[in-house]
Design a protein that fits this description.
By secondary structure, the protein is an alpha/beta fold. The protein is built from 5 helices and 12 strands.
Length: 244
């Protein structure tokens, strides 16, 4: 089996969180099944594993990672209903975060054995794609030591604010979940959680930093290009839809 760096891109559009999660699980299981079957085959007969990058938006939803604390959600069931939001405990790393319209969500379903087997490097690559995308729009963003994600005012730390949250899962070197970049996001929904378990730093968006609504498709296109360059993939294969 050779390393397959070609990547299938699928734009899922505005999609229910559970539906997208189920689809991630389906693709993940298919890739793992190929890897397990390859164990029984001679090298020349082994099958390449596919890689996917999924982009989407979600209706209002809060998700809590494995290491998160339920009390970091500040709404009860009635509060969730009042604000039209759902809540899920999920199997990624990290604490609680919010997803909603105007937020570019990326779910790379990659077999890292096609690229490199280093989950920390993988996280840094995702962050770098976001940093480059922000730079494409004149926003200076970067990392804060000890904190995952991408931040504004990451050097002086006078008013550090998160523009992109990240949380991933990897099993048999196949990834799930990913990043959520606030483009034109309604930031008021972050008031009802302790974002990522961090209570002393703010959340921001590209719209807030630039003082104007940002072209969402333009952000998506640039993010895809930056992911392709950073992961040194073969040309991304466009796919119009997805199979649930």
């Amino acid at each position: 089996m050779s390393q397959n760096k070609s990547t299938i891109f699928q734009n899922l559009g505005l999609i229910d969180y559970q539906t997208a999660w189920d689809y991630q699980e389906k693709l993940h299981a298919e890739i793992v099944a190929i890897k397990l079957e390859n164990r029984n085959l001679s090298p020349e007969n082994q099958l390449d594993t596919p890689n996917y990058i999924l982009f989407c938006e979600h209706p209002h939803v809060y998700t809590l990672g494995k290491s998160g604390k339920p009390e970091h959600l500040l709404l009860d069931e009635k509060g969730l209903e009042d604000y039209g939001a759902k809540y899920y405990k999920i199997n990624r790393g990290g604490d609680i975060t919010y997803h909603g319209k105007g937020q570019l969500i990326g779910y790379p379903i990659l077999d890292l054995e096609n690229f490199f087997t280093d989950i920390h490097k993988y996280m840094r690559f995702l962050e770098e794609a976001v940093i480059k995308t922000c730079a494409d729009f004149g926003i200076e963003a970067g990392r804060i030591q000890g904190l995952t994600g991408v931040w504004i005012d990451h050097i002086s730390l006078q008013n550090p604010r998160k523009i992109c949250a990240m949380g991933v899962k990897a099993s048999r070197w196949v990834t799930m979940h990913g990043f959520a970049l606030n483009v034109n996001t309604d930031l008021s929904y972050f008031n009802y959680i302790v974002p990522c378990g961090i209570d002393d730093k703010a959340v921001t968006s590209m719209e807030k930093e630039l003082g104007q609504v940002v072209d969402f498709q333009d952000v998506s296109d640039k993010m895809l290009k930056n992911l392709e360059e950073i992961f040194d993939t073969s040309p991304l294969t466009p796919r119009g839809g997805y199979r649930a």
